[in-house]
Amino acid sequence: MDFRNAILSNPIEYLKGVGPQRGELLRKEIGVHTFRDLLYYFPFRYVDRTNVEKIISLHMQMDYVQIRGKITRMEVIGDKRAKRLVATLRDETGEISLVWFQGWQWVEKSLQTNVAYLVFGKIAVFNGYLQMSHPEMDLVTEETATGKQFLEPVYYTTEKLKARGLTAKAIGKLTKNLLEQLSPGEIPENIPTSILQQYRLMDRAKAHFKIHLPVNEDDANLARRRLKFEELFIAQIRICRLKIRRQQSSRGFVFNTVGDAFNTFYNEHLPFTLTGAQKRVLKEIRQDTATGRQMNRLIQGDVGSGKTMVALLTMLLAVDNGFQACLMAPTEILSQQHYKSISELLEQMPVKVALLTGNVKGKARKQILKAVEEGEIHILIGTHALLEPQVVFKNLGMAIVDEQHRFGVAQRARLWQKNTMPPHILVMTATPIPRTLAMTVYGDLDVSVIDELPPGRKPITTVHRTEFQRPQVMDFIKEEIRKGRQAYIVYPLIEDSETLDYENLMKGYEEVKAFFPEPQYYISMVHGRQPVDMKETNMQRFVKGDTQIMVATTVIEVGVNVPNASVMVIESTERFGLSQLHQLRGRVGRGAEQSFCILMTGNKVGADSKERIQVMVQTNDGFVISEKDMELRGPGDIEGTRQSGLIDLKLADIVEDRPILEAARASAEKLLQEDPDLSMPENQSLQQFLAAQQGKSQWSKIS
Ligand code: ADP
Ligand code: MG
């Protein structure tokens, strides 16, 4: 078995029909460098060449069709600048015009009249007549005449490739050339036989031939299914092995005691009883940190599920074992808030807490850095300023990252270097990740889920209101304020246009002010252009209840906690994605009062937005919403997945192919459980396949 197959590793220009110039283009335009890359350059659909329409039966609702006939006439028409070639094609039922706007000189020379052509193209209407522009023309051969032509694969191509003659069809020819040179033995199997049998998968060589040259739909589908399974299975084997290896090899600090800090706080200062889910997650963390291996755990907990308390108790555990801990949050406001609430909670305890952000400067900064280095500060809270090399800990044992999706993997990895042995890492995210995505993106992390909200919370009532109903919405807010509550009014950030954002927000602010005049009402405003201390002051006024309304852009999206706020009005809801709406809504419903989320839109709403609004109105469940979000937008758009660099699937789609993904995951786990080193004879081919792939992948980068 040779997965480093010499033929397949050949540079693409050596393939018959390519050569240096086209080779260069194939590399640049579609990333095909070798024969192997071309083999893996799969068609995205097929055209049924057995189906030929009669010209009389064509109509404008048709898309791509195939017809057969003879050219009866050709003429070049139009003035100098817009010349085109028009050919008339006739079959026994009627006529249709075929038109070429570009390259027509060449077409005119190559087409012949009065011989039969098989013509394939898209139906269009011009001046009330049906026509085809730039159709594909094939002389009728014996093969096509008898209708034995296979399904024709259609490959993605680009304008530049087409200009060099590399049309979809030409790429198909190259692939055919390649497959003709290969024997099945050159595409050896990499999936163990038992798994092939269990899932009735086509063998690997056959699948590669059939996906490019299928005889019928079934053939194509089975080939596709096999190759998708392979793609996902190999990815899962890699992820699972990485996890096993990490669990075996990466030594970590041992936290073997639960001491004074934890116990005193737990027994005397905890302001509420923990939920079952919080307790369970703490227990998982306790177990992880007692093993002597480095913990790498992800906590997924919906907004308001109480992750901060879990973080605090975890940090106290580190302190009890003689280590320092840090908590990193994505924004200044959020770090300040964590700092404030944690220092208050620890007020009567001998645990030292400090805040470090980009705004802590000069002498204050020097002092903090010194105290951290000397170990006088036990818990350091801050923004990514914590990652800077000047921040040196005496003995960091636990690093917690809040709202993970705002940080890239690379940043996370920098925390590892903050001690001689990497500290334990706890990552907390409020964006629930669909299970399938978690398997793919965070497959190597241990995942805990806080799937329970603190008791006494009433589900948030969500409604959709349009511009017509604005006065009623404002009255409703007044009513809530009268009851002592507070309200957020959030405006979207328009990408690439800070000015527009700002104008939008200001207009909104003036509008709100007109409805809520001083001195009866006070309004805070927070947006990205304000200096940090102003932002902070405005925020604090709202937190303290000095202002009843907070007008803001999405800067308040993440983590802000004002339990007395009971109304969240989201302006221009159309502009927000589902996860973001869910995050924003999560800013209310944090106290015991009934809370409301009002989704404002214009009077007319597009179908897409309507669907998102429906989801929001129907459910408060972050997991349901994230599934839906992924379905609507595709996994690549879910926050945090792109920078993770892990979703690089050619064929499989983790939404559509979820059953295949789950089967692949289950098979991979079972196989590695039985044979962790892949040393059993039946797993040799897989082992060799993986070895041949080493170095090509970026998997080692995951932290
Ligand atoms: P998130 O998971 O979104 O970060 P927080 O940690 O900010 O949530 O907690 C949300 C609110 O719930 C806070 O006001 C917090 O004090 C409160 N809270 C957390 N855990 C509990 C609990 N077990 N019982 C009651 N309230 C809790
Ligand atoms: Mg939080």
Output the keywords.
binds adenosine-5'-diphosphate; OB fold (Dihydrolipoamide Acetyltransferase, E2P); 703 residues; DNA polymerase, domain 1; binds magnesium ion; 40% helix; alpha/beta; 6-stranded parallel beta sheet; globular
Strand segment tally: 21
Integer-rounded radius of gyration: 32 Å
Number of helices: 25
Q: Name the beta content range.
A: 15-25%
Textual characterization of the structure:
Residues 288-450 form the Helicase ATP-binding domain. One of its GO terms (molecular function) is hydrolase activity. It catalyses: Couples ATP hydrolysis with the unwinding of duplex DNA by translocating in the 3'-5' direction; ATP + H2O = ADP + phosphate + H(+). One of its GO terms (biological process) is DNA repair. It comes from Chitinophaga pinensis (strain ATCC 43595 / DSM 2588 / LMG 13176 / NBRC 15968 / NCIMB 11800 / UQM 2034). With 703 residues, the chain is an alpha/beta fold. It has 25 helices and 21 strands. A seven-stranded parallel beta sheet has the order 11-12-10-13-14-9-15, sandwiched between helices. A six-stranded parallel beta sheet has the order 16-21-20-17-19-18, sandwiched between helices. Strand 5 (116-126) and strand 6 (129-133) form a beta hairpin. Among the domains are: 1-48 and 157-184, DNA polymerase, domain 1 (Orthogonal Bundle); 51-148, Nucleic acid-binding proteins (OB fold (Dihydrolipoamide Acetyltransferase, E2P), Beta Barrel), CATH 2.40.50; 260-289 and 306-429, P-loop containing nucleotide triphosphate hydrolases (Rossmann fold, 3-Layer(aba) Sandwich); 461-619, P-loop containing nucleotide triphosphate hydrolases (Rossmann fold, 3-Layer(aba) Sandwich). Mean pLDDT is 87; it is low at 639-646 and 697-703. Adenosine-5'-diphosphate (ADP) binds at residues 272, 274-275, 278, 301, 303-309, 430, 454, 559, 561, 563, 590.
